[in-house]
Specification:
24-stranded antiparallel beta barrel; nine-stranded mixed beta sheet; 5 helices; about 5% helix
Length: about 850
Amino acid sequence: MLAQLLPVWVLVAWGVSARAFAPAPAAGAAEPPKPAAAPAVDKLAPGAGAPLPAPAPAAPGVQDMSQTPLWVRPTSAPPLRPVVGKARVRDFKLKSARIDDDAIDIDGRPNEGAWLAVPLLPDLVQIEPRYGHAPTHETRVRVAYGTKGLYVAFDCIDDPKHVRAGVFRKDQLGPSDIVWLELDPNNNDTTGYSFALNASGSQEDSQLFRDDSEELLWDGVWKGAAKLTDTGWSAEMFIPWSTIRFTARDEYTFGVNIGRWINHDGETQILSPTPQGLPGRMSWALDYVGVKNIQPGLNLELRPFFSLRGVPRRGDDSLDRSFPLLPNGGFDLKYGLRGNLTLDLAVNPDFGQAEVDPAVLNLGPFEVYFPERRTFFLESKEIFETRFQLFYSRRIGRIPRAALADQTPRGEEDGEIVALDPLTRIFGALRVTGQVKPGWSLGVLTANTGASFGVERFSDGFERRVTVDPISEYSVVRVRREFDGQTSIGALVTGVVRGGGEPSAFTGGFDYRIRFRERWRHSAQIIGTHNGRREGMGAVADINRTSKNLSMGAVFETLTPHADFNDLGFMRYNNYIDGKANVGVFNAQPVGNVRRMSATLSSQVASSYQGYLLQKQLHLDLSLNTLKLWGTSMNAGGHLPQYDLFETRGGIPYLVPFHWWIGGTYWSPDNKKVVGVFNWAYGEQNGRPGPDYGVELRLRPVPRLELTLRGDLNLSFGRPRWTTTNDLDEAVFGRAYVTQYIGVLRGTLGILPNLTLQTFNQLYFLSARHTDFFILERPGTLVPTNPAPYAGEVDQGLTSFISNSILRWEYRPGSFLFFVYTHRTVLSDFSPRFSYRPLGGFGNLVAPGVANEDILFLKLQHMFGL
């Protein structure tokens, strides 16, 4: 089996010949054809593919030999492959070309005469499916610059019938033919930007950092267009200088890389690909030299906004008593201080998110993680990311929760929270991110939130106002010294200062990452925490090595029993010493009809500081993809009996029995109009089964419409789980019979590349019934107990339906109009009419007492840029 996973080199004969003539302009060119420019590289190498100068017109019947090469490669020459790696970066220097800004119209048709004076870049190199081979379809690319910004033209040769040009929302490109530009404006091999267009002109952009990391949620202001042609499709990009932050110089050298995805063949082409098995991305870009007489720009953006939130219907059990129509207004200011150092200031920001979180009923002891969706916190967030997640921006301005209300008994009676503020007001936020000098990155973020309140009611009808969250200030500071794209050292400090006498919390630490001997990478972080009551420490270190066919790595991680950075970070638990190791093998080139296959074996062993073994696990993953993009994956694993310190919510540890599992996923090609995915898993814990199934169907009936239907069914039969703690402070367990199913319908309608309608609809049902109750006397001993006090009282259930639709119009670059409609229907186990039956989820939605809520949200944001 191992031998089959090693690469099988297949000799593919192909020749590289220089094109003698530049392609003729399309019909309707602004000027008559001009002689093609000189090659775009200072030194031609095998695979460069740069065009030779076009010959002057010859008289009829006369053959002009003045431009004929002195030597022509014989057709019987050995097959050559494009030069890649260090030699390509060293030898291929791209000559810059200046262009008149007024001579180019960004319409997707690069047929203006000015484009013909711009030399073609070298040929791209295929990296998928056959790394290092010549592309199966030619891609002609020109890059030029002007006073206002950078211009890129693509001519993608293909059969027009095979080109897919779906219309998608910005930054959410689906399967389609795509081209992209990667740009390192400071040429530091560390940071940069990526700009992508598909064949319909839909856009996607991202910020690149630490050489090979990408922040897809960065949103730049630029122009792009694409058109189908008789020979495939073409595209144009314009990147304003104010969008790409860089330091002013007399002469610039940019790092440039180009890519293309051919959807019907599943082929990826790159101008300068990263060598197989080596890390890096921006460090392999080619130098674009000789850019002069340009100005980075003032880099000032002012974005005032107005929003309106309306709640025409609330559920009877809603704690929101606010006025049903809430207007809001404010502004965001973005200013480029120097180079790519940027100041962002938000005054009375509207941090309401347009997209909703999916429903979930948490049966475990740990908090559910939800990703950030608010734009302010998504931009430039990479600078604050470390191995331990010390900064979790959703802590700032979180929705008030009744459990956090500052309630005090009135006499001997505890009151009940009957009203809560709908949101926590953020007065203002400030962020500074970027490089203060070459090699030094800085990130500073601070935000102030107002107090949130609730209403407490007692049995006699008396009500009083109580504080839920006090006035708070959240701050995070990050400094990082970057020696190259893979080597850096940094420090991060966070703080939460609360008013009203509430405890403040602080966390700090330092980290580093090192690349050595090309293929080895090592990183580590050490932190200290203080949550206002106790202090703790943590450390993590890893080492990884990659090659063309082999990867291996090891991780050590620990948090002391009182380590806690949840005030502004995210952690699930502490009190562990954990070690992981993995080894993987995979193929470097296709083997027959197999595009990619891999096998990874991983193991994990963990202990608490008290000596309890928390993890004794082994896991195997196998995957296979064909050249036609069909795929399958399998996994299997298990753990020996191990302790769970948190299942009893503060009680004695629970010894989890032996558990094994197996699962798989199968999928059809994602580049088709109909895509199917099926996944399954089956496991047993001490003989008690727990199967899971999932089915997904993606439909693209027309280029402008994509629908995704997803269904998941999760079952568990008779596995013991904690249910409650009795009056004797004993942990009570019950055999849980859990049924959970989730149905999701997503839809995207691309009316125009800048006008989209999206919808998310989720039906969620969970039922957890319990029988055969036990008292946990010792970690591995469950003693039967009288079920009467618990039967029917500790069962849990939730049924919900959520529908969220967003109409998004970018009426000019950087300016948006949002209209959002959200509907929620919820019935929980608190209702006596809740049905625990497997099909009860549908009946619960129309049961008496079900809570319905409708929310309308309108936001207009206009950008003024200088």
